[in-house]
Amino acid sequence: MVSATAGATKVPDAPAGTGGYVLRTATAQDVGGARAVMLDTVYRDLRSGYVPRWHADIIDLDGAYLRPARCTLLVVVRDGEVVATGAVRDRGPQAPPNPQWVADRFPSGSTAQLCRIYVRPGHRRHGLARMLVRELGEFAARAGGYTSLYLHTDPSVPGAEPFWRSLAEEVCDERALPGGGQGIIHFALPLPGVAGPVTSPIR
Q1: What is the pLDDT of residues 27-48, one digit of tens each?
Q2: In 10 A of CB 161, how many CB atoms?
Q3: Of the candidates 22, 123, 36, 111, which has an alpha carbon nearest to the alpha carbon of residue 75?
Q4: Which of 55, 71, 156, 189 is the most exposed place for a label (fewest CB within 10 A)?
Q5: Residue 198 forms beta bridges with which residues?
Q6: Residue 121 and residue 200: Cα distance in Å, rounded?
Q7: What are phi and psi of 77, to 5 degrees?
Q8: Could you tell me which residues are beta bridge partners of residue 187?
Q9: Counting runs of H as helices and runs of E as strands, what totals does the chain give?
């Protein structure tokens, strides 16, 4: 299980189910492996390739997630290899390109945005993404100052839409907007209430 005290910003190493998986807060030594998972995903699954305005954080993981106190990057490691990633950033959706009302609902600073929740294909269906979501939510609650938990997803990625609908509440499906918007779906998740020491089981 994962245990942390209130205000802690690091997730202790913890077994992530069976199969030798370990979930932990990323270190500088994990940056290369995490970046490889992310870049492989944007090229293979998202099929956008690297787009600087969307993916600059992937290049500067240290500046985006490791150094800021209220941001984090978690990794799942097996046999010394990073096989899954997940992050929190303290920035809400911007308008444009997102609808103004969505940006207004999730302002930067008070919004914890879940992002880069990627699992290598050979390691899917082990519950790793769900574990990352749970731990990232707990991190946001402990970090303080956040009032909402937000994410968006591209429903064209196989499995992405049903996965997030099983965990989160739809805020806006841009496919229903005039012109189809960006074709993405915005979601909100409940922000865990944390008071005192927290124990979050890994299932």
Answers
A1: 999 999 999 999 999 998 878 8
A2: 17
A3: 22
A4: 156
A5: 4
A6: 26
A7: -120, 140
A8: 151, 170
A9: 6, 10
Summarize pLDDT for 60-87 with one digit per residue, the tens: 999 999 999 999 999 999 999 999 999 9
| Nearest-angstrom CA–CA distance, 156 and 36 | 22
Residue 22: exposure state from Cβ atoms within 10 A (0-12, 13-18, ≥19): middle
H/E stretch holding 171: strand 169-173
> pTM for the full model?
0.85
Output 121-128 pairs: Cβ under 8 A, ≥24 positions apart.
Answer: 122/83, 123/21, 123/76, 123/78, 123/83, 123/84, 126/16, 126/17, 126/18, 126/19, 126/21, 127/16, 127/17, 127/203, 128/16, 128/17, 128/21, 128/23, 128/76, 128/83, 128/84
